[in-house]
Amino acid sequence: xxxxxxxxxxxxxxxxxxxxxxxxxxxxxxxxxxxxxxxxxxxxxxxxxxxxxxxxxxxxxxxxxxxxxxxxxxxxxxxxxxxxxxxxxxxxxxxxxxxxxxxxxxxxxxxxxxxxxxxxxxxxxxxxxxxxxxxxxxxxxxxxxxxxxxxxxxxxx
Length: 157
Ligand code: SME
Fold this sequence. Notes:
The protein has helices at residues 3-17, 23-37, 73-81, 133-150; strands spanning 43-50, 53-61, 67-69, 85-87, 105-113, 116-125. The protein is α+β, with helices and mostly antiparallel strands. It has a single domain (3-150), classed as GAF domain (Beta-Lactamase, 2-Layer Sandwich), CATH 3.30.450. It has a six-stranded antiparallel sheet with strand order 3-2-1-6-5-4, with helices on both faces. β1 and β2 (53-61) form a beta hairpin. The longest helix has 18 residues, at 133-150. The chain is globular. Methionine sulfoxide binds at residues 43, 64-65, 68, 73-76, 96-97, 99, 103, 106, 122, 124.
């Protein structure tokens, strides 16, 4: 997808989530929408921050690891550093947690609402170096839209 594909997806995401006050329903639809829009992706979902662990939330793909400690794996690193992790080859990432042996590259974006980490969005691909800078930028924008809408909910996921 290019920048304009991501811009279109961003406006579709706003339309999809705007009128629904339930955070869990919104997170589930965000994940389903993105999974169906992206090629060459075998797992896509949200890990939610619960105390010191990331816990499996809404996702598409095979059953996955339920609990990840902060600082562990690609997801835990994104959460601990509050920085997107774009990993071209997960086998070269020290401490990578292999949930699905098919996964080769991974993009993990921290989800921050009102300055507070609420979880991460994790996307896995069976192809090495699947995620470009354009993908990173596009997905970060979608996550920012999702987080902005979360801020208006009664509760977070
Ligand atoms: N590979 C991730 C774990 C989550 S699964 O990919 C769904 C990690 O290293 O954090």
